[in-house]
Design goal:
Blueprint lengths: L4 E2 L4 E2 L16 H22 L14 H22 L4 H21 L3 H4 L6 H10 L2 H19 L6 H41 L9 H18 L2 E9 L2 H8 L1 H18 L5 E6 L2 E8 L2 H16 L11 E8 L7 H21 L5 E3 L4 E2 L21
Parallel strand pairs: 6-7
Antiparallel strand pairs: 1-2, 3-5, 3-6, 4-5, 7-8
Helix pairs in contact: 1-2, 1-3, 1-5, 2-3, 3-5, 3-6, 5-7, 6-7, 9-10, 10-11
Amino acid sequence: MAGAHTPGRGHRHGASPAPEAGVPPAGRGHDRRLVAWCLAALLVTGSALGSVNLLIDGALREGASRPVYVGTLCVGVLLALALAVRQRVGERATVALVLVGDVSYVVLAWATTDPLRYAPPLMLLSTCFVAAWFLGARGLAVHMTAVLVACAFVLCDSYPSLGALVVPVLASAGMLDVVTFGVFVLRRRVQRLLASTQELSSTDPLTGLANRRSLVDQSPRVWRQARRDGQRVAALVLDLDHFKQLNDDFGHAVGDEVLRGVSCALAASVRPPDVLARTGGEELVVLGLVSDPDEARRLAERLRRAVAGTGAGQDWRVTASIGVALAHPADGEDPVDALWRLVDRADAAMYAAKDGGRDQVQVAGGDVLPLPRATDGGRRRPDPAAGGTA
């Protein structure tokens, strides 16, 4: 379960750091399957194109070259089948497969009578594409070096002197490496833009907390973990008391400051695995796993005290009414639907806490937890009788 965002930093407690660009985005199952299928398709395509030389008279050297050539093509097909069966591949395996492709090209070129005609360096384009799109920076550097060595080895017999060899090797390897590096840079930029877009789409811009969409995205994971661990899912709905009145008295800039301060306090008070989200206005939701109602009550009380402490030293004071609801996840239920049913129950309990006097916790189906009234300590406090929706 992803943890809460630390306000202003766009980071969640318990979330993995942004991965170095490798198998995109490095470690997710569906992406590893995509890489496996792409590699398998390229291996089959390369082997099919390479087999054309078997049909051309004089394309292969006499002797053992033909069995070596056929064997290399078969290795490519077998690797493709293995990838298709396994349906996943990590970055190290991808680096190894790219290097196998580079070596296979050298072997195939050696088996031909004229590499410039039957095995030109352009055949490395498929491995260059794989390296540019699926490898990290270190793996890419290894591949680019291998391309230079492969071009030099393949073309060395086609030119009479070292001086004559340098230009075509640098031209071929340079073109392939420049294209490879260019695609790699573009891919990294696209990945950063996608990561930034995803972060913006799942983060509340004012507080830095998770937003409603992120809360929904986390619900399947929460429900799976609850079923696996035999725990209950707890939803805590927090609504700031008299927040409209505070906005009216002090202005929306202060209201925004209050929301950010409350978010910081809550982010420091929730447990690392909990999901803390702002779902709209002055309402926040905490989603987490508990073993029993008492644990949920203790968490709610800790959050209530954290909110009450955010106005220290200010002209304003803020409190929160908290509703708590618990559920036992059932097999086969839709986690998103179950999430909103649970939040609705917690929301109703939150309104019951407001009706009971505010600044307190109400557990759905349980008793109100009355809390001692804090004194104003000489600070100005909005008058509840003055109105407001909260």
